[in-house]
Each structure stands twice: as structure tokens, then as C-alpha cells.
């Protein structure tokens, strides 16, 4: 656990970057620090591993005052990942990842073997291990940065905008991989970002800071969306709060009803079967593939190229936001619901999802 206890940083020129910050980052959870530029996120993070010393107040690592530990000992327990990865350009990927274990005197062969495992664990092709950082994409470099921070198996990880320098698609992949990895590792993580959507996606709890380095609100993502504490937080959290909060509302009781289907490759019964509008095409495993208009394509073979693929899929027990989106994006107006293996369970309408939402509110 990391605990900021009235931690304050005043720089020599008088700037108060962090002002009496009191905040606990619980063990095994992701705590995100978010806020506008200059609100003291990076300064707060660096006070944890003492790259920056607080002017007053204390930062605790479990029951230990971090000021009482030699910095190198403290940093051994704390991984650190920064934007642009900060890799050593003249070392291979493998040696970058093995940096800390080697510094700690681990046997070279063992260090490299574990580094290779980590390279795979963060989703990189092991063939990349021999390359130099400049021979990798930005997203791949960030993964190496994460692997390097994990190499000494520290219980705590500090991450400063680790995914900010890559394009939105890669960024989303990195976020998903990161959540998967954290599901396995359960580290205590303090994560800095200026992006509220990233904060809401990744955080078990989110601390919104204001310029001047004070804490505006500490809450779970769902609470933050539902009940921003003041106008500043409401403005920072942004638009569509009600809709975005549905990402945290789960639809275990979705009233899924049976949906008629036609198999890709077969000739579909169309209006002969009394179906008006659209029919759902599935593959041999009953995985939904797309929608086919029924009226005008009677008796023709259902081919991939004829399918309307606009509809998103929802999972039973998944977020109500996905369920509603499945309905709104489906040409038939019926949202397709699948099980965890992607097999068809049935469909639901927007009206039914909205009723469920209203029921929850009541
Ligand atoms: N070495 C320094 N000397 C004086 N002021 C500093 C120093 N480093 C940072 N500051 C100031 O402290 C405040 C907080 O900076 P910090 O980098 O912690 O903010 P941040 O929230 O991480 O910002 P950003 O999102 O822009 O990276 C800012 O006003 C910044 O100008």
C-alpha cells in the first residue's frame, strides 16, 4: 500500500506543485492520478520513489516512511514506467528488460531467460528480443518498458503516462493488455494520465487533482461519473457521463429472447419463413456473422459479402452500455447477445435495455 500523508512539494522558485496531498493507493489495485496539465501528477508520483523529495508530509510504503529507506532500496521495490519507455538505445530488448536483475547481481543466463518470458508475457513476439529499441514501433517500445519495470518483480509500479505517445488504436491494445496482466499479477499501481477516459477505464479508483496540487475527488470510476463532487470535476469528467456510466452497470437480467438464424453458406428461407426485415447469419459454431435483409434475397446462398456487419455484440452479464450499443447499432433494432465464447444466446431490444436501466435507478 502507498499512502500520501499531507505530502507537499514546494519547488525552490516557490511553486507549490503538490499541496497537502492525502491519499491511499491500496495494495493490488490501480490508483489513477488524473488532472489538467501542471496539477502535480508527475511530482506526486516521483515523491513515491524519491526522485523528488517532499518538502513536508510523508509518503508511506506499507508501514515504512519512505524517507527512512535508502533510495536504492526503495526503488528496488518500485517499478517505474514512463512515456516513450525510456529504453537504453544501445542495449537489445532482452538486455533492457534484464537491466535491474543484472544490476542486482543475478546470473546473466537466468536473467535473460526470465527476461524472455516477460517479453512474451507483455504480448511481444520473442523474435523481437534481439532487436534494439530503435527497431521497434512505439507501442512495442512501451511494452518493453512495462516488461523492464516488471523484471525485478516489484510489488509496486509507478506509471507516468506510459501509453500517451502511441496512436489511439495501439493505445487501446496496450490498455487492454495492461489490464489483463494486472489481473494476473495484482500489483499495487499508481498510474498518471491527463486523459480522463484512460483513468476511467484503468482505475480501480481515480484521484482528480486540480492545479495547485490539491485533491479534488477520490472515487471509483462509476462514482466519479455518477456524482462528480463539484463543477471542476464535472467539467473535467466531461460530457456523456450518464451514458459512459452504463459501462459500469451490468445487465445480468437481460431479457434475452430467441433469435431466428440462417447459416452462412446455406440458402436462407427469407420471407417464405414469415420473417420480415432482417435475419441473423451465424457460422457453424453459431457465432453471429452479420445481418441479411430477408425480403429481396430469397433462395440465394448466404455469402459473407452480402452481410450487414454494423451491429456490435453484447455479452450476457456484460455492461448495459454494450447491450444498448448492440441494439442501436443493429440494422434490425435487435441487439445480439452472445456467451463468453461468442456463441449466440439471443437478442434484446433497446426498449428492454432502457427498462432495465430505469429499474436499476429505482
Ligand atoms: N523543477 C521545477 N521547478 C519549479 N517548478 C516545477 C518544477 N517541476 C515542475 N514544476 C511545476 O510544478 C507544477 C506541477 O508539475 P508536474 O509536472 O507535477 O505536473 P503534471 O500534472 O504532471 O503536468 P503535465 O500533465 O503537464 O505533465 C507545475 O506548475 C510545474 O510548472
From TrEMBL:
Its EC number is 7.6.2.9. It holds the Pfam family ABC_tran. Keywords: ATP-binding, Nucleotide-binding, Transport. Belongs to the ABC transporter superfamily. GO terms for molecular function: ABC-type quaternary ammonium compound transporting activity; ATP binding; ATP hydrolysis activity. InterPro entries: AAA+_ATPase, ABC_transporter-like_ATP-bd, ABC_transporter-like_CS, CBS_dom_sf, P-loop_NTPase. Residues 2-237 form the ABC transporter domain. SUPFAM superfamilies: CBS-domain pair (SSF54631), P-loop containing nucleoside triphosphate hydrolases (SSF52540). This is ABC-type quaternary amine transporter.
Amino acid at each position: 500500500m502507498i499512502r500520501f500523508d499531507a505530502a507537499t512539494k514546494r519547488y525552490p522558485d516557490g511553486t507549490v506543485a503538490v499541496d497537502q496531498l492525502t491519499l491511499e493507493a491500496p495494495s493490488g489495485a490501480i490508483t489513477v492520478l488524473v488532472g489538467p496539465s501542471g496539477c502535480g501528477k508527475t511530482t506526486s508520483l516521483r515523491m513515491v520513489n524519491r526522485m523528488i523529495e517532499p518538502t513536508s508530509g510523508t509518503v508511506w510504503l506499507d508501514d515504512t516512511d519512505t524517507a527512512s529507506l535508502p533510495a536504492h532500496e526503495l526503488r528496488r521495490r518500485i517499478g517505474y514506467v514512463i512515456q516513450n519507455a525510456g529504453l537504453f538505445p544501445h542495449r537489445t530488448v532482452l538486455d533492457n528488460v534484464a537491466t535491474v536483475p543484472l544490476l542486482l547481481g543475478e546470473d546473466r543466463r537466468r536473467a535473460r531467460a526470465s527476461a524472455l518470458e516477460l517479453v512474451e508475457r507483455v504480448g511481444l513476439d520473442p523474435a523481437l528480443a534481439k532487436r534494439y529499441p530503435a527497431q521497434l514501433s512505439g507501442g512495442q517500445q512501451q511494452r518493453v518498458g512495462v516488461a523492464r519495470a516488471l523484471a525485478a518483480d516489484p510489488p509496486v509500479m509507478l506509471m507516468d503516462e506510459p501509453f500517451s505517445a502511441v496512436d489511439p488504436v495501439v493505445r487501446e491494445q496496450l490498455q487492454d493488455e495492461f489490464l489483463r496482466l494486472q489481473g494476473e499479477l495484482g500489483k499495487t499501481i499508481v498510474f498518471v494520465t491527463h486523459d480522463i477516459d484512460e483513468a476511467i477505464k484503468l482505475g480501480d479508483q481515480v484521484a482528480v487533482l486540480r492545479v495547485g496540487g490539491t485533491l479534488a475527488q477520490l472515487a471509483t470510476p462509476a462514482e466519479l461519473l455518477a456524482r462528480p463532487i463539484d463543477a471542476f470535476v464535472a467539467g473535467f469528467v466531461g460530457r456523456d457521463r450518464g451514458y459512459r456510466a452504463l459501462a459500469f452497470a451490468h445487465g445480468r437480467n437481460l431479457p434475452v429472447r430467441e433469435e431466428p438464424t440462417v447459416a452462412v453458406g446455406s440458402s436462407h428461407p427469407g420471407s417464405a419463413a414469415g420473417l420480415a426485415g432482417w435475419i441473423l447469419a451465424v457460422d457453424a459454431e453459431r457465432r453471429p456473422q452479420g445481418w441479411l435483409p430477408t425480403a429481396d434475397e430469397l433462395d440465394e446462398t448466404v455469402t459473407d459479402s452480402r452481410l450487414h456487419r454494423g451491429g456490435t455484440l453484447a455479452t450476457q452479464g456484460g455492461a448495459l452500455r454494450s447491450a444498448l450499443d448492440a441494439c442501436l447499432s443493429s440494422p434490425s433494432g435487435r441487439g445480439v447477445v452472445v456467451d463468453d465464447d461468442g456463441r449466440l444466446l439471443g437478442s434484446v431490444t433497446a426498449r428492454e435495455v432502457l427498462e432495465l436501466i430505469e429499474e436499476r435507478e429505482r
